[in-house]
Amino acid sequence: MNRSRKTANVIITIILAFLSLIFIGPILMVLMNSFKGKLFISSEPFKFPTFKQQDLGEAGIMPKTFVGTKNYVSGIEKTNFWGAFGRSVFITVFSVLLIVVLTSMTAWFITRAKNHYANVLYYLFVFSMVIPFQMVMYSMTKIADVLHLDNPVGILVLYLGFGAGMSVFMFSGFVKGIPTDIEEAAIIDGCNPLQCFFKVVFPIMKPTSITVAILNTMWIWNDYLMPYLVMGKDYPTIPVAIQYLQGGYGSIDMGAMMAVLILAIIPIIIFYALCQRQIIEGVVAGAVKG
Fold first, then answer.
1. Which of 17-31, 47-61, 73-87, 199-213 has the lowest mean pLDDT?
2. How far apart are CA 246 and CA 253, in angstroms?
3. What sections of the chain are H helices per DSSP?
4. What is the chain's Cα-based Rg?
5. Which of 1, 14, 21, 185 is deepest in the core (most CB within 10 A)?
6. Average pLDDT in the 224-229 region?
7. How would you class 290 by CB atoms within 10 Å of its CB: exposed for 0-12, middle for 13-18, buried for 19 or more?
8. CA distance linking residue 34 with residue 278, whole number of Å
9. Residues with Cβ < 8 Å from 196, sequence gap 6 or more?
10. pLDDT digits (tens, 9 = 90+) for 129-149
């Protein structure tokens, strides 16, 4: 029995390692090509950069393909990377902050109210999760233009709306597992509803709050379509700025694009690596039966 279990574990480990290589492979390929000259990225995409010229005999001399940080400098200059980076950080941080605070309060109210209106509100949030963004993006763009939400501050409202469905759903599942005795004791001690939430309930919701923050951070940071439709060229975020590396007649500076892609994914990889344990804890904590 133990031998068969060990064999199964080895097989599972091999399969997971193989899958990991499949997912990590494209990132490593982008990293490798970000240090190559742009002419060699298309002709030799799977070869490591060479650091010196190679004598190929009758075939001639193969020039070195390693260009150091040239692609990174070029990409930063062409995309105004630090401006786009600042906008992405601002939009991501404040959107996630609004989503976590407001949807946690909404979920707490819906769960504790226990009336017909609260149930209808809950199912509206759940229903919003299944509506594809493509169905509403044109009407959303028009409304954003009319209400002057086509700027880094206004787009926070749009992200709050699109992120509310999943967040309320996760918070509601967690709140159902919090004993009401804790809240009743706080009210008896003199807390009003806001004090009861922020001093008692919200700290208990920390695992789910971190999970909601991580998932929404990864979505908003990498989102291309909404910033492009709403803000366009006026306030480009990193994904939008990268798109403008494409020149006339479809020409693309692949070296600069690879370099900027690496710079764009480094912050989110670091953030996810530091917080990945909280994702599982938060999902498990929120998966309770009401």
1. 47-61
2. 7
3. 2-33, 38-43, 70-79, 81-113, 116-128, 133-146, 155-175, 180-188, 193-196, 202-204, 206-222, 225-230, 238-243, 254-286
4. 25
5. 185
6. 90
7. exposed
8. 32
9. 183, 186, 187
10. 888 888 888 888 888 889 888
The interaxial angle of helices 155-175 and 133-146, nearest 10 deg, is 130
Q: Which two tokens stand for residue 156?
A: 């926070």
pLDDT digits (tens, 9 = 90+) for 165-212: 899 998 988 888 888 888 888 888 888 888 888 888 888 888 888 888
Q: Which two three-digit tokens encode residue 85?
A: 């980076």
Q: CATH for 70-286?
A: 1.10.3720.10
- Domain definitions of the chain by residue range: 2-62, 70-286
Of residues 190, 191, 205, the one with CA closest to residue 108: 205
Helix (H, G, I), strand (E, B) or coil at 55: strand
Type and span of the H or E element at 57: none
Q: Which helix (H) or strand (E) holds 54?
A: strand 54-55
What pLDDT digit, counting tens, does each position of 106-126 carry?
999 998 887 888 888 888 888
